[in-house]
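Help needed: design a sequence for this.
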């Protein structure tokens, strides 16, 4: 399953698909959703017919013409206790809009975050659950072969608790905190949904897990990236196809710091080779899952050597 790249800017949500794109300039988006606000986060239904986006106070669902189908105001504050971003995501069947609501960031340290299941057709709340986390942002990861979804909550220096959840037949949220990921930061989920990769920042290693059990299938230690490598970064990186993962590593040579992308064998958990030159700063990238990556609005192929 290829991933769409979704970008948000004032007055527009843009969707880039990668079924027929070739290496070169990224070009124009395939779909534009006009909006009247400045989205802080957004999501697109899997049929690409409707979008959901959040502002500091409100979640809105719109069609391709930008018409508001419904809205949910989660606060009347324009500034929270700390910086926060709510995050929506659609279920694969399009029936539910999931919403991560960082209540700690909105209301203060006496509150903890919530996960809401919202009816995508009406905007009514189906079910909600207290996460017990105190984050300021989050991301959803999912695959259509899996009943469950993953929610990776960002708590800054306190870590990134990972939750697994689904909506049961009684329309109640069933939530589990992934104890196997405590102390790690999730990098990405595999394209078939059966595995995921995390980074153990304390032990400076990459870990391959099975899903949903979280069993450790393999590791790569920092010294396997070379004697000058000093730190494995959680971002940017992820699965670039079924068999390989890109990860960013920091190091120091001759008194100068550098960042270097590496290609990993996602099954054997071995370092294949570095990708491209060393850079001063880690460069962002988007991985659609077809063996290419998007960098600075350009589509690039993974170098063969």
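Sure. Designed sequence:
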């Amino acid at each position: 399953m290829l991933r769409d790249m979704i970008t948000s800017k004032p007055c527009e949500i843009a969707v880039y698909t990668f079924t027929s794109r070739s290496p070169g300039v990224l070009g124009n988006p395939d779909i534009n959703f006009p909006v009247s606000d400045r989205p802080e986060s957004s999501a697109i239904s899997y049929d690409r017919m409707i979008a959901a986006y959040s502002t500091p106070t409100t979640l809105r669902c719109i069609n391709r013409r930008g018409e508001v189908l419904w809205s949910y105001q989660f606060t009347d504050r324009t500034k929270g206790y700390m910086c926060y971003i709510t995050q929506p995501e659609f279920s694969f069947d399009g029936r539910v809009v999931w919403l991560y609501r960082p209540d700690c960031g909105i209301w203060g340290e006496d509150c903890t975050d919530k996960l809401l299941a919202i009816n995508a057709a009406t905007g009514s709340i189906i079910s909600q659950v207290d996460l017990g986390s105190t984050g300021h942002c989050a991301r959803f990861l999912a695959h259509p072969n899996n009943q469950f979804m993953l929610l990776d909550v960002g708590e800054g220096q306190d870590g990134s608790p990972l939750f697994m959840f689904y909506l049961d037949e009684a329309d109640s949220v069933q939530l589990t905190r992934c104890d196997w990921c405590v102390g790690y930061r999730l990098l990405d989920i595999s394209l078939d949904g059966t595995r995921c990769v995390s980074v153990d920042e304390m032990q400076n290693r990459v870990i391959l897990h099975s899903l949903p059990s979280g069993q450790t299938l393999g590791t790569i230690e920092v010294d396997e990236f070379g004697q000058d490598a000093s730190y494995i970064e959680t971002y940017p990186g992820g699965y670039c196809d079924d068999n390989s993962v890109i990860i960013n590593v920091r190091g120091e040579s001759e008194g100068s710091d550098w960042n270097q992308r590496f290609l990993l064998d996602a099954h054997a958990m071995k370092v294949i080779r570095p990708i491209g030159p060393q850079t001063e700063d880690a460069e962002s990238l988007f991985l659609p899952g077809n063996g290419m990556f998007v960098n600075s609005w350009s589509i690039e192929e993974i170098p063969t050597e």
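The chain has two domains: 1-177, 191-305.
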